Each structure stands twice: as structure tokens, then as C-alpha cells.
Amino acid sequence: MLVIVMLWLLVGFYRPVTPAVMPQASVVNTTSVEPKSVKEIEKEAEQMISSITKMLLPYVVRNSDVNISGTCMSTIIKLSVDLRRLKLPAIKLLDAMAKPSFGLLRGSFGVMGDYDECLEISSNKRGDTPKTKEEEFYHGQYCTVIAEFPPKLLKAMQDYGNGYANYTEFGKIGNIIKEVPAVNFAGSYFKFHIGICLPSTCTPQDLTAILGLVPIDFVPLSVLRCEDGSEKKINIHQMVFLGVLALLAAFVLCGTIADGWQHLRCTEYNEKDKDKFIEFLVAFSVYNNTRKFLKTEKNNSSEITVINGMYVLGTVLVVIYHTYFLPFFSLFSSK
Questions:
Q1: Total-model pTM
Q2: Within this chain, do residues 85 and 218 fall inside the same structural domain, yes or no?
Q3: Contact of 288 with 282, CB cutoff 8 Å
Q4: In whole angstroms, what is the distance from residue 80 CA to residue 82 CA?
């Protein structure tokens, strides 16, 4: 897995460099290069992956005592071989992983990869896409890794953002600290989320052990969750929330039916014909609430009552915006 991660880093950091504008004279004197064939490109790709694997082999050997399960280790070795052979499931697994992104100093604190592509990956023992479920050797598993800011560095950033310290007090790294936006009130959001695509034979504990090999000791790394799409468990909080939504939907449905039944039963719609329970249900009626919401008649105090509801909705939206959205918008805004 370390080979795959390092390959992921090298591919992510590699970006084609935009060539400088050449003088017209030099453009005229250049000779055209014959485009390479598909076979030649395939051979060079295999050579590149093979050379990266050989370059990382000494580091892998030095850390071969890492606590990884046997099934996970064997699958990782197989993936390394499949990558050199350009097998499609291995390539898709590497492609589904998050790549190093740009704009870290502008608030880009997440590279999530491709969740759907990762879960759709399936491979047999030969490294090809299996034709049946019984031939499957492993399938994709999507994991989220959190890289937190070093506590001392985050404290220095927050002190600078709140005006308690000057960036010159932190040495050379102070020039970087002053470029990070909104550290004074959004420091708790400074967690870098990374999407990792693993074979299903590896567990979160295996990924934690692999993360221990990353040579960046001052950045805390942890596995938030892993899922392969095979089973989705609902926790108690989700069950309560879904129960409340189902109860509310039942009230809306029953209230709308009761409201319609009252209108059909009575030629003249009379509020006094309702009992307390029917009146309670009608309070949830879609028809009744829509009619009241769109009513523009003035009451005795010469007020349009629907405006009061708009005031309430506007206040709720302002509170939600300042609580949940403003910190993120401030992170992504330029100075």
C-alpha cells in the first residue's frame, strides 16, 4: 500500500509545465517529432511504474515489520504487480484516490477523490474485472483520512488571527501563517480530509498502520471511517431523525386528508364544525397552510400577516448562514 500511496503522491505532484513563449525564429527552426504509437506509450508507462516501484522498494523493505494483516499485505503486493501490468481495477483504484490539490492557503482543506468509482471497483485473482460475483477477489473500499494541523501551529495561527501575536514572532513560518484566512474563528475547521481507496481485504486498522509509515511525524493522521457499500448501518441518531420526519409526514398527510374531507362534507366550510382533534390535524394540512401563506388580506390592524411569517423565515436563514456558512465562505474568499 505504501508503494501505491507514494505513486499517488508522485502522480499528484506531477503537473505539465506550460512552456514559455518562444521567439518566432526559434519556432521556425524546430523540427517536428513523430508521435509515439500506443504500444510505445504502453511500454513507457510500464517502465515508469516499474522504476517508481524499484525506487520505493528499499523503504518498503526497511518497514516490512509493520502490523498489517496477511490478507491486506498479499492484496497490496498483488496490486503492485497489477499496476506494473496496467490492469484496469488497479488503475481505477489509484485513479479513485484523492490527489494533492492546489490552493491550501486559500482554504482548500479537502481532497475527497471519487467515491462512486472506488465502490464500483471489483477484481478477480488475475487482476481483471470479474464476470460474476463469485470470481471477485476484492472490491473497492472508500476511507476518509483526517490530517490535523499540529496543535502548536494551530495555536500560533489563532493567536495571530486574534491579534495576540505578530507573525514575525514565528520565524520563517510566520510568512505562511499570515496567509491562512479566517484562523481567528474557523480554526476548528482546519482539518484536511483525504479520500483513500483501499481493497476490501484491508481493514481500518491496516490503514492506520500504513499511515504510521508516512514520514511526517508532526501531522496527526487518523482514519475517520471506511465503507465498501455492502452494508449501511443506521445509528440511533439517524433512526430518531427519520422517526421524527415520518411522524411529521404522517401528520401532514392525515391533516390534508381531514381538511379535504371537511370541505367535501360541508357545502359551507364552517370552522365550528371541527372538533379539537380534527382542528389539530388540519393545522398540518398542505392546502390550509398554503392558503394562509398566500393570503394577502389585511387584518384589523392594517397589517398583511404573511409578512410576519417572512420575517421569521428571514431571521432563521440569517442565523443558519452566520452559524454554518459564513466561516466556510470566509475561508474561500481572497484577501
A1: 0.61
A2: yes
A3: yes
A4: 5
